């Protein structure tokens, strides 16, 4: 058994609807999954499926309505301020758009060096040495330390963001649409860099992306979310080669067409995602599912394990 780094247990995050004490947006509604050290998990689903809320709840940026997150053996919601600060060193995030996530008025050395000066006892000389190492690690010249973010290309800015995120050598890195704002050639280079760094430092990644080719390239396992629920979860090759949940099937149906590998562009899914304030009774996907039958409208399917090891929530399958 590989060592677990992250255990998410029945996590729920409900947001109250303005002006009502009894109505909630159920952004995440009972998600459980585990991650082993060194694993890459891809989170997929349309906008509004709950993947961003799931990640911000796991990062403890927002408190859960219910459930637990055990990171590196500790329940993060019971940690004191000092312990949480320590834990934060080990969980970092790389945002979608490095143009907005990097302070344009700071030199690169200060952007990358900030976590080191706040969270470590290194002196200025040691911090500068570390910054040079980090720049080299992400394939940027050392003299880049004395430039501003706007003096770099989009791909180079994302390398700066990666250097900053890895400055404290975290155990878990969340990659939130890591390549969506950069050109195609830089995208391939950034993916390859992230892959190399993962191997070199045994990093664990959570990858959020609308681009299914990014998710399939990066991930060992895939979690498919729909309206706050996990609907299918398992090994990447298994799910990509033979998706079983009708929602996953519809998401992946367009992959061979290079122009439609973005979830939002797909035409295979009819209709809009329903509101998570008042999700459909029974299976939440039943309003859009081509296989819907009577039981789907009445009874919510449980997440069950199939013989091939994947988890699935659909009445078409029995374990
Ligand atoms: Fe479709 Fe029914 Fe399965 Fe839901 S439970 S995905 S509606 S077949």
Chemical compounds bound to the protein: iron/sulfur cluster
CATH topology of the domain at 4-90 and 170-247: Rossmann fold
Rough outline: globular
Question: Could you tell me the number of beta strands?
Answer: 12
Q: How does CATH name the architecture of the domain at 4-90 and 170-247? A: 3-Layer(aba) Sandwich
Sheet with most strands: 8 strands, mixed
So what's the CATH class of the domain at 4-90 and 170-247?
Alpha Beta
Number of helices: 11
Poorly predicted runs are: none
Mean pLDDT: 91
**% residues in beta strands:** 15-25%
Strand order, biggest sheet?
6-7-8-3-9-10-12-11
Distance between the termini: 23 Å
Along the chain, the helix and strand elements come as EEEHEEHEHHHHEHEHEEHHHEE
- CA-based gyration radius: 21 Å
Secondary structure category: alpha/beta
Give the proportion of residues in helices.
25-40%
CATH superfamily of the domain at 4-90 and 170-247: P-loop containing nucleotide triphosphate hydrolases
List the helices and strands and how they pair.
Blueprint: E1 4-16, E2 24-36, E3 40-44, H1 51-58, E4 66-71, E5 74-75, H2 81-89, E6 91-94, H3 98-101, H4 108-119, H5 124-137, H6 154-165, E7 172-176, H7 184-201, E8 204-208, H8 212-218, E9 221-226, E10 229-235, H9 236-241, H10 246-252, H11 294-298, E11 304-305, E12 311-312
Parallel strand pairs: 3-8, 3-9, 6-7, 7-8
Antiparallel strand pairs: 1-2, 1-4, 4-5, 9-10, 10-12, 11-12
Helix pairs in contact: 4-5, 4-6, 5-6, 6-7
Bound molecules: iron/sulfur cluster.
Provide structural commentary.
With 319 residues, the protein is α/β, with parallel strands linked by helices. It contains eleven helices and twelve strands. It has helices at 51-58, 81-89, 98-101, 108-119, 124-137, 154-165, 184-201, 212-218, 236-241, 246-252, 294-298, and strands at 4-16, 24-36, 40-44, 66-71, 74-75, 91-94, 172-176, 204-208, 221-226, 229-235, 304-305, 311-312. The chain has an eight-stranded mixed β-sheet with strand order 6-7-8-3-9-10-12-11, sandwiched between helices. Strands 2-1-4-5 form a four-stranded antiparallel β-sheet. Strand 4 and strand 5 form a beta hairpin. Helix 4 (108-119) packs parallel to helix 6. The relative contact order is 0.14. Residues 246, 283, 285-286, 289, 291-292, 296, 301, 314-316 line the site of iron/sulfur cluster. Iron/sulfur cluster (SF4) binds next to loops.
